[in-house]
Amino acid sequence: MSDPVLWTYIVIAVAGWLATDIWRWLGVLLGNRLDEDSEALQWVRAVATALVMAVTSKLVFFPTGTLAHSPLWLRVGSLGIGFIAFLLAGQRVIVCVLVSISLLLLGLAML
Fold it and tell me: Which UniProt key words apply to this protein (predicted)?
């Protein structure tokens, strides 16, 4: 194991794990004391939802890589139909993700 490239990846993985794992444990320890209906937790949920929507919007309207070569109507249509499936499935996020990705892949394959 004298390969310097391998050691670089090992150091990155360990440092990344240490940097994020501390915050996860603190979240578990401190999160047990929060009331699920508290304003603080509602704010955290709102911020998390806003961040997810911002990333999703960026991927749909300002794509990079393979998505940049797909038409806007395909990206917006896949997202819209995925959202309808999300609502029909009782607000299950996995349904939205699977339907949206499946439609996007099908559309890309047909182009």
Answer: Membrane, Transmembrane, Transmembrane helix
Phi-psi region of 60 (alpha: psi -120 to 50; beta: other; left: phi over 0): alpha
| CA 62/CA 93 separation, integer angstroms | 22
- Between CA 49 and CA 52 the distance in angstroms is 5
Q: Write down the pTM of the prediction.
A: 0.64
Higher local confidence (pLDDT), 51 or 9: 51
Handedness of CA 60, 66, 71, 76 (dihedral sign): negative
Show me where the domains of the chain are located. Answer: 53-110
- Residue 34 is classified by DSSP as S
